[in-house]
Design goal:
The chain contains 11 helices and 13 strands. By secondary structure, the chain is α/β, with parallel strands linked by helices. The protein has a single domain (6-352), classed as TIM Barrel (Alpha-Beta Barrel), CATH 3.20.20. The strands form 3 sheets. It has an 8-stranded parallel beta sheet. A 3-stranded antiparallel beta sheet has the order 1-10-13. The protein has a two-stranded antiparallel sheet with strand order 11-12. Helix 1 (22-35) links the parallel strand 2 (13-17) and strand 3. It is globular and about 50 Å long. Bound molecules: N-carbamoyl-L-aspartate and zinc ion (2 copies). One zinc ion is lined by residues 16, 18, 42, 257, 259.
């Protein structure tokens, strides 16, 4: 049997992306705009994007940082805080620009100090989101320092997500960047759909969690470029993620969680969490899907299921990948310094065809 040499996908979307701001954004954004038509842009800036006005201004800054001729569309999100009111949710929905609210448990990850301290405090906002059909995106980890860092996602589901789902049965929820068999199972067992058949519970999957288990962080020494949150888990979990990603189930779709941090902030005594995957995102997903001989399932995962969940039209146009060996650069320019992309210096087996 000959293996696929060329793969053509509908132009895909990235449903979980960190673009940062300023000089960092100017260097990170073109990588995403090259591969993706749209992206759900995370609001964890400093200060966080909490109000509609901030999202509108951030959106303008993104649009003006785009390479000439790019038709990339940023899909904005707002950062849920203890002070988010139902009126703010209504205003965001009415704008047509805000596509979701993001829940960070306070202190769970990069720039999450303004996050929610107690879920009950945001129940009025969640009520409004449920009735308006505004999705809630969740960084699903408990912050309890007593809980082992490898268990924080599973414990979040037990302690918070099950009750949240019960309290808001019709809320559209995305459990972001899932890393465990427990998360895959929770979503698989959530069968609720709206009247149009759109699932009410979904999850995004990153390329790095599909490709690596926690050994990657310690191979021959500490490997800070494999450190992200939620942290990579053991191989059995990775296999469970590959199962759901390649199953053709519309509740699981692409979200890179590409989270750029300058090299010197990761190669440090207290290194930042996040993997930078925007520069070779589709190539990495191809490698993951190929492990299950499931390249034929990548189009739906990358280009169809997420758009349907968010009520967006499917993109027109295509993107083509070739099977060809090339070396991922060791580092790339980033905010007057540099950044180390995932699989830096390694041979890639697929390559996105760039415009001639
Ligand atoms: N994933 C990460 O490890 N880091 C993200 C934050 C996040 O998505 O939790 C970041 O903004 O750097
Ligand atoms: Zn997160
Ligand atoms: Zn993220």
């Amino acid at each position: 049997m000959t293996s696929t040499q060329i793969l053509t996908l509908t132009r895909p979307d990235d449903f979980h992306l960190h673009l940062r701001d300023g000089a960092a954004m100017r260097d990170a954004l073109p990588w995403t705009a090259r591969q993706f038509a749209r992206a759900i842009v995370m609001p964890n800036l400093k200060p966080p994007v909490v109000r509609l006005q901030q999202a509108l201004e951030y959106r303008e800054r993104i649009l003006s940082a785009l390479p000439e001729g790019s038709d990339f569309t940023p899909l904005m999100t707002l950062y849920l805080t203890d002070d988010t009111t139902p009126a703010m949710v209504e205003e965001a929905k009415g704008s047509g620009v805000v596509h979701a609210f993001k829940l960070y448990p306070a202190g769970a990850t990069t720039n999450s100090d303004s996050g929610v301290t107690e879920l009950r405090r945001v129940y009025p906002a969640l009520e409004a989101m449920q009735s308006l059909g505004m999705p809630l995106l969740i960084h699903g980890e408990v912050t309890d320092p007593e809980v082992d860092v490898f268990d924080r996602e599973a414990v979040f589901i037990e302690r918070h997500l099950i009750a949240l789902r019960r309290a808001f049965p019709e809320l559209r929820i995305v459990l972001e960047h899932i890393t465990t068999a427990q998360a895959a199972q929770f979503v698989s067992e959530s069968h609720e759909r709206d009247s149009r058949g759109v699932p009410l519970q979904a999850a995004t999957l990153t390329a790095h969690h599909l490709l690596h288990n926690r050994n990657a962080m310690f191979k021959g020494g500490m490997r800070p470029h494999y450190y992200c949150l939620p942290v990579l888990k053991r191989e059995t979990h990775r296999q469970a993620l590959l199962d759901v990603a390649t199953s053709g189930d519309d509740r699981f779709f692409l979200g890179t969680d590409s989270a750029p941090h300058a090299r010197h902030t990761k190669e440090a005594a207290c290194g930042c969490a996040g993997c930078f995957t925007a520069a070779n995102a589709l190539e990495l997903y191809c490698a993951a899907f190929e492990q299950r001989y499931a390249l034929h399932r990548l189009d739906d995962f990358a280009s169809r299921f997420g758009a349907a969940f968010y009520g967006l039209p499917r993109n027109s146009g295509t993107i083509t990948l070739h099977r060809t060996r090339w070396n991922m650069p060791e580092h790339l320019p980033y905010a007057d310094t540099d950044i180390v992309p995932l699989h830096a210096g390694e041979v890639m087996e697929w390559q996105v065809q760039t415009a001639p």
